[in-house]
Fold this sequence. Notes:
By secondary structure, the chain is of the alpha/beta class. The chain has helices at 6-17, 37-51, 63-66, 69-84, 99-112, 126-133, 152-155, 164-175, 190-199, 217-224, 238-241, 246-265, 272-283, 313-327, 342-353, 394-405, 423-428, 440-449, 455-463, and strands at residues 21-25, 57-60, 90-95, 117-120, 139-145, 158-159, 162-163, 181-185, 204-208, 232-236, 287-293, 299-304, 334-337, 357-360, 373-374, 382-386, 389-390, 409-418, 433-439.
Amino acid sequence: xxxxxxxxxxxxxxxxxxxxxxxxxxxxxxxxxxxxxxxxxxxxxxxxxxxxxxxxxxxxxxxxxxxxxxxxxxxxxxxxxxxxxxxxxxxxxxxxxxxxxxxxxxxxxxxxxxxxxxxxxxxxxxxxxxxxxxxxxxxxxxxxxxxxxxxxxxxxxxxxxxxxxxxxxxxxxxxxxxxxxxxxxxxxxxxxxxxxxxxxxxxxxxxxxxxxxxxxxxxxxxxxxxxxxxxxxxxxxxxxxxxxxxxxxxxxxxxxxxxxxxxxxxxxxxxxxxxxxxxxxxxxxxxxxxxxxxxxxxxxxxxxxxxxxxxxxxxxxxxxxxxxxxxxxxxxxxxxxxxxxxxxxxxxxxxxxxxxxxxxxxxxxxxxxxxxxxxxxxxxxxxxxxxxxxxxxxxxxxxxxxxxxxxxxxxxxxxxxxxxxxxxxxxxxxxxxxxxxxxxxxxxxxxxxxxxxxxxxxxxxxxxx
Length: 465
């Protein structure tokens, strides 16, 4: 058994990646290309791949796999295995029966399917729940106040001065002796969320209903967040799956959640990696404050000079590891550095991830091989472009064009800092996804909280993005 409880692991991951998004993996037949287990598997894996850097957890619903027979259950095992590479998996199976049967259900969920948590029904009492709670590293989310229209038929019934779901919340609190119990509390009823949070101030809530069921994201967060701004897995399934750009929609949701957290708590739960990066950039002299003219011609009170990383090998190695954390979730044959600041960074990244590197020349030489792209590659390969920062995206598009002229395909650009000056939308217009270790606004918030920026400096930087 792990020394870390399931709920502690959720806390740690939420702080590390700065997200409360739970991606539902519900392969409804109408969303599939065909009603087969293969199509269900592909549907879910596409969602996992697109949201791997943003999902706090994944929640596959076993019913949509079970209906596809043995092949469907095999697909469910594959989906759980693929999703667990990136985030905890909560099996939505709503189990709960007499003790021996529950023991078999728990073994199936945790040891056969290898899920990290499972949803359970409380109505057979503690003995039915206990088999799911014996390992602190595995979690159980107890059905408390569900998001469906008929939930009130029974869950609102009065029981000794409280509603039945409120009694369930109190029982779940008592069952949480090993730090691995959560509650299913639908996002569709903010008033119930608020009441349950008052009764269970520390528990994690699994909160479906945002999207297809019409829950108001802001209202449910205001009602259900813990005092530390965490404690809710905001589950989105069908509405996300229907989006053409899955990553962009997931990012929109994460940013909307951040906005409520900031208003509610006063500051975001900062990912640990960002705190480290913010300190590293200042210590290595990669960030300067003053009055600078950028390549785009815009004036800026802040300037990032990542070229100096070559003089700080330990800092360069750490930065390369942060890049690698993003790149390992993408699909490509080799990386390409953007001259000139991106070249030493891409070299270090390639060494960390064991990825072959090429680079497009700024100017094609008139002697030797006269290559526009240096390095070994094959026409038709997919390349991930690596650069230092993203401003307007112009330099990236120039490099992309030279790579495409060489017969290479580019889907992703990875940078250390997105200066939030339009690069993301500009690249998206050309079918390119921008991935950044940090956004300028995140770093500015950290430096301001540390007293390294004045109010006026913060205002100037954010206004000139």
